[in-house]
Amino acid sequence: MCNKIPTNPDRVVLPTNVTPSHYTLTITPDLKEYTFGGYVEINIDIHEPTKTILINTKELTINYGRVEIGETTQEASSTSFDEHRETTTFTFDNELPKGPAVFNIHYQGILNDKMAGFYRSSYKDAEGNSKVMGVTQFEATEARRAFPCWDEPAAKATFSIKLCVPTELVALSNMPVEQITAVEPEEMTYHFEKTPIMSTYLVAWAVGDFEYVESTTTKLENPVTCRVYTLPGLKEQGQFAVDITPKILEYFSEIFGTAYPLPKLDQIAVPDFDMGAMENWGLVTYRTVALLFDEKTSDLRFKEQVASTVAHELAHQWFGNLVTMEWWDHL
Question: Which cofactors does it use (predicted)?
């Protein structure tokens, strides 16, 4: 878990007159121009009639926002961004009635180099060519850089994520791939299974040229596929981590009395990563040295560090992910 936790006692929280229950999110990254397009459909509950919806955003350009209630659609007549509070207010001409609705937002974002939100990580391939991968880091309050959301740990929802990427790249997210569809000859869309109910800071995805090593649990009622993803040429260095992962999952499932609830557990080494690791549910991200171990050249003490870090992040799959603090000062 990262340590950049907001501690300001005058915390900024969103009003509770509108709350989310499910996000359907489509992201189309451009790794050459360092931008991405986004479209999100948020199933919301309007608890009292309102003409405004307040939501977290940061460094996003909103193209439009509209609310669908039954057969009627109402587009926001204005949007206003508060840079200090990192919120956007959508205002509607007519009052939105109490009840369920779908909030649609089309927007654009920056694939930044700040190691926060949806960002780019640069590296050199085996031939010395400069390459870029895209990866997320949302804890504590950076999901709002990637999609408009209720970016608070207690505002849990489920997520259905789609990533539109060039055919030569691999896309990963919290859940397994449900299907892959072709958008055009050089682009395809990864559709991921619906997540359990979870906080926005645990949502994750990655896009790049990856390879992996794999293992599977053997002692759980529902086997869990475990993979370690690396850049090309490094997958052998992920073997130690992928070998110990099933044992750790089985151990925690036993002592906590609750099985790991997802069907897969991916871990990925990221060249540019601000923290040691981050416990995104089902897609744990690591600084390269915190996950990979070269049996031929690495000192044995680094093996122990990898084991300790992996065990720490996997423990968070239960406390942190399955059970989450209401706010950051409860950490």
Answer: Zn(2+)
Mean pLDDT value across residues 90-96: 96
41 is known as an active-site residue: no
CA separation for the pair 112, 326 (Å, rounded): 29
- Given a cut of 90, whether residue 296 has pLDDT beyond it is no
- Rounded to whole angstroms, how far apart are CA atoms 175 and 282? 6
Are 331 and 5 in contact by the 8 Å Cβ rule? The answer is yes
Q: Is 238 helix (H, G, I), strand (E, B) or coil?
A: helix
Please give the Cα distance from 305 to 312 (Å, whole number). 10
How many Cβ atoms sit within 10 Å of the Cβ of residue 205?
A: 24
Question: Cα–Cα distances in Å, from 300 out to 66, 135, 306?
Answer: 56, 29, 10
- In the chain, helix, strand, coil percent, each to 5? 15, 45, 40
> What are the angstrom distances between the C-alpha of 320 and each of 112, 154, 169, 324?
27, 11, 31, 5
Residues ≥6 apart with Cβ < 8 Å to 114: none
In degrees, rounded to 5, the angle at the alpha carbon of residue 312 between the alpha carbons of residues 243 and 264 is 50
Closest listed residue to residue 151, CA positions, set 42, 260, 312, 34: 42
Closest CA to 22 of 89, 104, 97: 104
- Model confidence over 177-224: pLDDT tens digits? 999 998 778 999 999 999 999 999 999 999 999 999 999 999 999 999
0.85 exceeded by the pTM?
A: yes
Give the integer Cα–Cα distance in Å for 264 and 78: 42
Catalytic residue, candidates 139, 295, 313, 326: 313
- Flag whether pLDDT at 243 surpasses 70: yes
- Type of residue numbered 264: K
Give the DSSP H/E element, type plus range, for residue 305.
helix 300-315
